[in-house]
Design a protein that fits this description.
Distance between the termini: 112 Å
CATH topology of the largest domain: Aminopeptidase
Number of domains: 4
CATH superfamily of the largest domain: Zn peptidases
Structural class: alpha+beta
Bound molecules: zinc ion
């Protein structure tokens, strides 16, 4: 959790900006939306409000989708009730967050819902901040980046946008949606009593029972029939269109984490898993874990239906101690305490039954050079059994492309081995291990690979070579130069000689201890020799070749001979001159 503090620090500026923008957003966004159904003019919100309305949430979502198109996509999954009547324009907006976001990949899916109940204002703030947090952390934070890559996260930050805007502007105690009920007087259905029941998995069971009312003026009015409301229909259709493993549902208040059933004290068939996950989430946010029924009996809520219908493992968070904590600092404390619990819930979706699955591997920081490569051993065990053909090692060298190797089981036991091919001394090798159990659950070592990674540096066993490029040489145009690198030494033998120099604007490369080259352009050439030993250790040396277009004068017999010739030419030349003058 150390890194979360860093993320929040960076988001602090955004927070401050959002807090100060908020009243302005409210005033401008509401005038057109709700005034049609009001007799009295809207009352401006209190200055201390930090809460954001539907319009603000929508702006934030589209801004983030624009900023992070690779990992976010907004889906309009239905209209809120007032839009179905043409009296407002609020949609039920969902955002998918994942890598390859436009593709439905084979990754565990998670659903996050917030704000079924209009007055529980802190909860869409949690959802919005979660979206901001995980998108801005992508590529910066190890765990959050891994979650984006390995999960498909769906968030509906505002299940009840009509109700929220009404609650923010006119009646802070408002809980339901804004349907005009059949009595033509009262408004609103309690959306979290309008799901179908799912008594013991019976899709028609227990709607409109305990914890509900059929009085349309009641705060817990369950509607005329299950899924009568466009808001709950949108969530129902989304849930059936996907394979959500885990759902997190944000309400207020009381600091609880709850799981089904809510209609009965009976335990679900998956009670062990629900209790284990509920306890784990509650340990993170510091809330109290309980079966929903132990709080109060309810029927027709999302918790029971998501479990009984599409078989999601749902968890309801009752955040904070009041519906509307009135100071920014309290809201942010609630967001802060719940963010790591959300991350944990998303991670748990990878194996919601929390079966034991371990990859035990001891990484080494250095490995001596080996011509036969580097064995990577791991002990892999899984409660459901290891898919023995699906354990692999993925590696790369010096930041190059990734390659994946299958593993063997040399002892026919739990130890799996792959051999990374030999690499030269000084190479930096990064790798991670991936395993699957027999139910298809994936496990990595390190846990959040490749954002976390095992690595080693290949060290030399013998000493490095010493290059010797030989002495500087001089030549005339057209003469052949014989290079001499035979003075180079190594304790296990030089295996490669590479000579380079720039000739006519192009780098020439020659190989071998004694290559030759004929220079047809004069000049001074800097020649570099690099030698490699059998481990890939290397050394370099250089020499200079000077190529001249004219003979080089020397003091000696040649110079003397030239002087004699010049003197003779001078003498005979004078004679000719004299002869010519005489002739004139
Ligand atoms: Zn609620």
């Amino acid at each position: 959790m150390q890194k979360s503090g860093y993320v929040f620090e960076r988001l602090f500026v955004l927070v401050i900006a959002a807090v100060f923008m908020c009243p302005v957003v409210h005033m401008t966004a509401f005038a057109g939306d709700i005034s049609t159904e009001l007799e009295a003019p809207p009352i401006p919100p209190s200055e201390q409000y930090v809460y954001h309305n539907y319009s603000f949430m929508k702006d934030v979502m589209y801004e983030i989708e624009f900023q992070f198109p690779e990992i976010t996509k907004i889906y309009d999954i239905g209209d809120a009730w007032e839009k179905t009547q043409g009296i407002a324009d609020r949609d039920i907006l969902a955002m998918k967050i994942s890598d390859n976001v436009l593709v439905d990949e084979d990754e565990p899916e998670v659903l996050i819902l917030a704000l079924h109940h209009a007055r529980e204002w802190v909860n869409h703030e949690i959802a919005i901040e979660f979206i901001r947090n995980i998108t801005s952390a992508y590529g910066n934070n190890t765990r959050l980046s891994w979650l984006v890559d390995n999960r498909e996260i769906w968030i509906v930050p505002m299940v009840n946008p009509d109700g929220l805007d009404y609650s923010l502007e006119f009646d802070s105690a408002w809980r339901k949606n804004r349907r005009l009920n059949y009595d033509n007087i009262s408004y609103g259905v309690d959306l979290n009593r309008n799901y179908n029941g799912s008594e013991n998995g019976d899709a028609l069971g227990a709607w409109g029972g305990a914890g509900t009312s059929d009085d349309p003026t009641s705060d817990i009015y369950c509607g005329e029939y299950a899924f009568s409301e466009p808001e709950t229909q949108a969530i129902r259709d989304l849930a059936y269109a996907h394979d959500f493993q885990v759902e997190l549902d944000f309400h207020s208040s009381g600091d609880w984490v709850m799981w089904p059933w809510g209609y009965s004290a009976n335990l679900t068939p998956d009670d062990d898993s629900l209790v284990a996950i509920g306890n784990r989430l509650a340990a993170i946010n510091g809330y109290t874990a309980a079966q929903s029924f132990d709080m109060y009996a309810t029927t027709g809520d999302s918790l029971d239906w998501l479990y009984g219908g599409p078989r999601v493992y749902p968890f309801l968070f009752e955040t904070g101690s009041v519906f509307q904590p009135d100071r920014a600092v309290e809201v942010w404390a609630i967001i802060d305490e719940n963010m790591p619990a959300i991350w944990e819930g998303i991670e748990i979706a990878g194996d919601r039954d929390l079966k034991a699955f371990d990859i035990s591997h001891t990484p080494l920081l250095t490995r001596p050079y080996s011509a036969s490569g580097f064995p990577i051993d791991a002990v892999v065990t899984a409660e459901r059994g290891v898919d023995t053909g699906a354990v692999s090692v993925t590696y790369r060298v010096d930041g190059g492309p990734w390659s994946t190797l299958p593993t063997d089981r040399p002892g026919d036991n739990d130890t799996y081995e792959a051999v990374i091919p030999s690499q030269s001394a000084g190479s930096f090798v990064e790798y991670y291990i991936v395993a699957h159990d027999l139910s298809g659950v994936e496990k990595m070592s390190p846990l959040y690979a490749p954002y976390d990674i095992h690595s080693f540096t290949v060290t030399a066993v013998s000493g490095p070579p010493v290059a010797d490029a030989g002495v500087d040489q001089e030549s005339l145009l057209g003469e052949t130069i014989y290079f001499d690198g035979l003075g180079s030494t190594d304790d296990v033998g030089v295996v490669n000689y590479t000579w380079t120099f720039v000739y006519d604007g192009v780098t020439q490369t020659l190989y071998g201890p004694t290559p030759e080259f004929t220079f047809m352009i004069d000049g001074v050439y800097d020649v570099a020799l690099t030698v490699l030993d059998g481990e890939g250790s290397q050394d370099s040396d250089s020499m200079v070749v000077t190529v001249s277009s004219v003979p080089i004068p020397e003091f000696g017999a040649f110079a003397m001979a030239m002087s004699v010739v010049a003197l003779a030419m001078f003498v005979s030349g004078s004679a000719i001159f004299r002869r010519r003058r005489r002739g004139v």
